[in-house]
Design a protein that fits this description.
Elongation Factor Tu (Ef-tu), domain 3, Threonyl-tRNA Synthetase, Chain A, domain 2, 2 domains, six-stranded antiparallel β-barrel, 4 helices, binds zinc ion
Length: about 240
């Protein structure tokens, strides 16, 4: 299993590691700072350095319990080699801000009974994000209201904290996982990683986070789309 250093420190930009396995798609290391795509957040890009050579990492994905760094050409590197990992930090930090914004939109949508809505999915791109809702009475006005409320919470400067609790404790906390697969997963886990947005929300989560909501900036609504009776979609950017 690759040790995922980003789970305990989302601000780590570099690390040393050892090559564990080479596949036709790339490299598996014993430890990594590269985030493997999941939960609507893209995998990291960057480089792996060995001797004088630079191996460009174009994407990072999960491979079972391991993390696979997608590298086009792995010639000249072997199992057991000690390498240096370096992520494209500007891109990752943007993803962290968008991820934090989605957490808070979700928290706000859950907080207000009048929205009667749930987030059913999300996707982060390098320069914008998409959020899908299950919400009947969705409109430009409602979307803008959610964004305005979320921006207010963002600017209250809430701390993001990561903690680990026993699975048996986690299953008793209401709404800790927001999706059915998430709820099923928690039941099987011995330890559950939780991100707490102090004073706002907590969720079971495997993502990378900013330390404080003040880092996120402000959400600007781009557009909404009607995908069905209850299926609604919103795009936003951060400024
Ligand atoms: Zn998260």
């Amino acid at each position: 299993m690759t040790e995922k250093l980003y789970l305990n420190d989302s601000y780590m930009k570099e690390c040393d590691a050892t090559v564990k396995k080479i596949t036709e798609k790339g490299l598996i290391l014993d430890r990594t700072v590269f985030y493997a795509s999941g939960g609507g957040q893209p995998g990291d890009s960057g480089e792996i350095n060995f001797a004088d050579r630079i191996f460009k990492v174009t994407d990072t994905v999960k491979d079972g319990e391991d993390v696979l760094h997608i590298v086009e050409n792995v010639d000249g590197i072997a199992v057991g080699d000690r390498v240096r990992c370096k992520i494209d930090w500007d891109r990752r930090y943007a993803h962290m801000k968008y991820h934090g914004a989605i957490h808070l939109i979700d928290a706000v949508a859950n907080m207000k009974p009048d929205y009667e809505g749930l987030i059913t999915g999300s996707q982060i791109y390098d320069d914008r994000a998409r959020v899908d809702f299950s919400m009947e009475n969705f409109s430009q006005e409602v979307a803008q209201k959610i964004i305005d409320d979320t921006n207010r919470v963002i600017h209250e400067n809430h701390e993001f904290k990561v903690k680990y609790i026993p699975g048996e404790e986690a299953v008793k906390i209401k709404n800790l996982a927001r999706t059915e697969p998430g709820r099923e997963l928690i039941k099987r886990l011995e330890t559950v990683r939780i991100v707490e947005i102090v004073g706002v929300d907590q969720q079971a989560d495997g993502g990378t986070h900013v330390k404080n909501s003040s880092e996120i900036g402000s959400i600007v609504l781009q557009k909404i789309e009607n995908k069905g009776k209850r299926n609604k979609r919103m795009y936003f950017v951060l400024e």
